[in-house]
């Protein structure tokens, strides 16, 4: 029995002493490539007419293909330049073989706010409007009545005659308005009646609230004459009126000419 145990132990030790040879991995084994794209931004909020670039880093180093889900809202060119066209949302996607990445673009309508909503002027006076616009686009200016007030493309207003006009600043269909009232002036003469002898001269003055000079005229040029400075000459006996007019307002003085 003892000899049998010794034999079994010898066999076991002989197996343990035999080295095990494991298969090794080949040195030229190739791991699978992973494709990816990294964008500089994945969400962007802009206003109509804004432009910006999305930069893409790709695993291949090659330029991706760009595409917009709705080019009517936001378009993109082959360089990743995005142009906002109208309000809404669009997804801009950059893709290569085996990978893609997207940026959600929200396009808002611009806001336009004028610095004044009401302006009162007299004929010949001017004012300047400024518009605060949320986009980089300059507003387009227009007036509802050029005969009352004009406006240039820098927002400069000029009062033409008494009345009311509406000045509008518009950016991509969004606008704000300012009401311009051109007031009639008040004219006060230095006299309501004058008596002078035929062949003599006198003068009359007018205080006009607008600061403009009035236009002088006479009702009867055979009795009196008057020039642009309000200087009156009596020509013959009688009664006549002199008028001072400015932008729809008229003041009158009665002139009596004696012999």
From TrEMBL:
Residue ranges constituting the BIG2 domain according to the UniProt record: 33-106, 108-181, 182-254
Organism: Anaerocolumna aminovalerica
Protein name: Ig-like domain (Group 2)
SUPFAM superfamilies, sorted: Invasin/intimin cell-adhesion fragments
Keywords (A to Z) from UniProt: Signal
Origin: domain of life: Bacteria
Pfam families on file: Big_2
Signal peptide (from-to): 1-29
């Amino acid at each position: 029995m003892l000899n049998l145990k010794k034999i079994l132990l010898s066999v076991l030790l002989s197996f343990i002493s035999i080295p095990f040879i494991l298969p090794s991995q080949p040195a030229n084994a190739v791991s699978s490539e992973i494709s990816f794209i990294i964008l500089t931004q994945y969400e962007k909020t802009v206003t109509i007419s804004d432009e910006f670039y999305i930069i893409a880093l790709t695993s291949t180093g090659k330029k991706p293909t760009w595409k917009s889900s709705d080019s009517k809202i936001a378009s993109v060119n082959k360089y990743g330049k995005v142009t906002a066209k109208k309000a809404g949302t669009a997804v801009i996607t950059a893709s290569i073989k085996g990978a893609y990445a997207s940026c959600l673009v929200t396009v808002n309508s611009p806001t336009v706010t004028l610095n004044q909503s009401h302006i009162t002027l007299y004929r010949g006076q001017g004012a300047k409007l400024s518009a605060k616009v949320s986009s980089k686009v300059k507003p387009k200016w227009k007036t509802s009545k050029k005969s009352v007030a004009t406006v240039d493309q820098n927002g400069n207003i000029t009062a033409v005659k008494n009345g009311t006009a509406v000045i509008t600043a518009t950016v991509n269909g969004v606008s704000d308005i300012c009401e311009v009232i051109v007031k009639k002036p008040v004219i006060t003469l230095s006299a309501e009646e004058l008596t002078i002898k035929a062949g003599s001269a006198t003068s009359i003055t007018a205080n006009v609230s607008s600061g403009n000079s009035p236009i002088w005229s006479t009702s009867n040029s055979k009795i009196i004459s008057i020039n642009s400075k309000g200087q009156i000459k009596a020509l013959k006996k009688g009664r006549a009126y002199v008028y001072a007019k400015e932008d729809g307002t008229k003041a009158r003085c009665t002139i009596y000419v004696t012999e």
